[in-house]
Structure formats: structure tokens, C-alpha cells
Structure of Biotin carboxylase:
Amino acid sequence: MNTEKREKKRVLLLMSPATYRAGAFLSAAERLDLQPVFGVDMPEQLAEYWHVPLGLDFTDIDKSVQMIVDYARVHPLTAVLSVDDSATELAAHAASALHLAHNTPDSAEAARDKWIMRRLMSAAGVPCPVFRNFPLSSDPSELATQVTYPCVLKPRRLSGSRGVIRANNPEEFTTAFYRLKRLLLQEGYDEEHTTFLVEDFIPGGEVALEGLLTQGQLKVLALFDKPDPLDGPFFEETIYVTPSRLPRATQEAIADCVTRAAASLGLRHGPVHAELRINEQGPWMLEIAGRSIGGLCSSVLEFGTGMCLEELILRHAIGEEVRMIERAGNAAGVMMIPIPAAGMLKGVHGVEEARAVPLITGVEITAKLHHPLVPLPEGASYLGFIFSRGETPEAVEAAIRRAHACLRFDIRREIPMVTRR
């Protein structure tokens, strides 16, 4: 009788210290009897103190890849996944070094760098905004005469709509330029070697597509409507609702557009999260990322007989077939609760009242009391999340709006607002 204990498959999960996703991936790994290994963007000494298996510097790709390869020699890995945007390039390099299925390093870089992304999409004929790349050291008064209005200023590598600002005229362009410049300098970018994008503003509604790529073939997991208008001057995400209420032909055109966009970048394997605008001319690609949806938003998605998104992604990563798995349940939605003003969070009221709204399945306040709040375009977080399930997208959206109306946030303006030049 064979009594040898089967060694669990190890999956390396790369993430930033501030990610919301660690718990969901850990739970999913336990359900699949996998052994998750956390690689976190932190100094090695701090990782040892917190008992994190791998403390890595995500900005030092070569060193981090070598550390992962050395670890894998002793503890073989079945897959390498990036939980958020911060490590998609590192995951691609590490998987390549270990001969594991993943996107190529070049495609991972293209999905992170909006300038490379735009050039590749445009060359492949994928509908996307007209764009130009400008040095951060430029004179904004000169640039303001070279662009078409309305336009959108956009950093090349920040995510979550950070630094994305609409300008309707030269005066607004100059103001937006200095605001973006301050943000990038605060993030450690070098003025002399940094560029940013200016794109034509694309009118229309916006959607988000969640999918999985297998050898370049796209499996659409969910298509979210974004019912709130995103017309600027900043582009704060709020409500996502699925299934989409768009006509079937439009949904198919969106999936085709995402497939073409992924192919233009060279993305062929793993999760993708795409953002598109829809107007009378059809779908327009805004961005596509080689990772799954951010924050706690994934918790509204269930597949098959109750499988969560993280479990689906892990199954795919270790080579299981997932093409026949469909989203389960009725309509679902989530609101990323926006930060209305900068200041110190002193209190949150109405949470139980919001949770009591019919069809609301959860209200999670993730902002911490007595901590500063920074709204977009400088901020990188939300106040929390509201979740809902119901028979129809309309009912789910209405429930989320009623729950949000119950919430009251005591924000004291005890930190200085960002001044405009």
C-alpha cells in the first residue's frame, strides 16, 4: 500500500503589501489543495520578520527573478501569478525563466506601459484614441497648442485612473499638466526622462471585461456595465454591474475588440481586465491589463457551482480546463465607494442601515479611521465597497445607490488640499 504523501502543487503569488486580494487567493488555494507561496514587494529583512517566504524588490527584475529561481530549485513551482498590477512584468520574467506558462515579458511590459500599448494597438488597427507622447520637462503652454480638445492627460504607468485628467481648453491643459507633473515627481519619476500621454477624449459609455486567455483564445468571464458617466475631469470608478445590458451584437463586438487588443500586445495566457468606451462607432479600447479585476470587486463573481474568480484563475494557472465554466447566478454589482474630499477620516455612519437595504450582500469599509484620505487624481484607494445581487441589473444598481445614500462619512480637512498652479 502506497502511503507516500502527495506533495501539493505550489503557486507563487506576487503582490504589493497593500493588496486586497491575498485573502481571496489564499482561500481559493486551500479549496484546491494547493500550496500558495507569497512573494511580496518588501525588503528581505522585513519579509523574514513577517514570515513572508519571498521578500522581493519588484523594480529590480533581474535580482528578483534570480531569487525566485533559487527558491524554485528547492521548492518547485507549478505557476507564477501576479495578484495586482505591480508584479505583472516580474511574473512574466520569472515564469519564462522557470519555463512555465505565462505571457512573454514584452507583452507584460506593453500591458503596463500605456505608450507601448497605444503604439501596438494602433499599428494593429485596434480602435483606440488618437494619442501623443510628450516629455514631462516640456513647456505646457507650447504643448497646449499642439493637441485637440477635449483631451485626456495620462501617466504611462500609474493604474486605477491615477493622474488621468481631462482638459477642455489650453488653460485646463496647463493646470492638468502641472498637477500630473507634481504627482509623477512625488512618485519618484525623473523629470528629464519621463514622458506622459495626451489622448483625444472618447465620448460614450464605459464597460469593463473580465476574461481568461488560453493560447490567445479569449474566454469572457463577465462584462460589466459602468452606469455612472465617466466624462471627467477625473475618472473615478464607481459602480460595476453584470450582466451587461448592451445588445448581444455590441457585446460580441466588445469581446472581438479585446481579443484583437490582446493579440496586438502579445498577451496569450492568463487573466485580462479590459476597459472600453462604447459609442455609435462601436467599441474603443482604453486599456487592457494582464491581471484580474482589482480591489474586492472579484467577490461579486461566481462560476459553475459557486467557484470564485480566484479559484478559476488558479485552476487555469495549473493547467486545468476552464473553457466550459460559466458565470453563475443572476445579476451582481459592486460600488467602489468614492472619496468625496481630501481630509482625515473621523467617522463612518449608516453602515448597518446600508447593509439592511434589500439585495445588498455586503458593505465593506476599507479606509481606516484617523487616516488621511486622498481622492483622485492623486489618490490610490477608495472608502470601501458595496456589493449586491438580484434578479436584474437594474434592481442591483438601484440597491447599490440606495445603500450608498445611507452612508455618511465624517471627513475633517486637516491635511492641505493639493494646490493648483
Observations:
- DSSP finds twelve helices and 21 strands in the chain.
